[in-house]
């Protein structure tokens, strides 16, 4: 028996398992440029890290006064993103190592993401993570995206485990809030390191305030093995 018996782990995808945010930024920049918004910056993009693509589009329409339908914007952004994702989406090495450690112990795992299901499946297949992460929930499949707990609760349901036996791995405030709302413990690895002092991250059981540069698979594993349910 392992010290992780009875525990399941649910991973966010973008900015947590893979460094896909640069691709999302570029897809968003191109999409907005096509609508006449030519000053979209990385700092602007950071406002939307951690929330679903659908909610990002809704906020864009409001902020930039876009007349085009949300469906058309979403399709345009997803098309551009998938082209970029297929070309290059790097996996964080220590995250891959963490997945392998958990898989070696037979820990049930899932991915719960704000991205479209097609985007999630494309990335998992392209990186080989789909061999370990077979349970996938997209925000498209639930009523509300993060910071609502829906995607995490649905992931727990599909894994067949109680929410209280799940640990979420997240990079953004909305995801950490969603994990708490789902009654799940959380390991936080802030993608935007400048946000690491946000009070929301204090709710996580383990926080790597230096982001991916500080995260190690062994430290996360040891915490998980020793943390009380």
TrEMBL record:
Tell me which positions the record assigns to the signal sequence.
Answer: none
Q: Which residues form a coiled coil?
A: none
- Classify the source by domain of life: Bacteria
Any matching Pfam family: Hydrolase
Its protein name is HAD family phosphatase
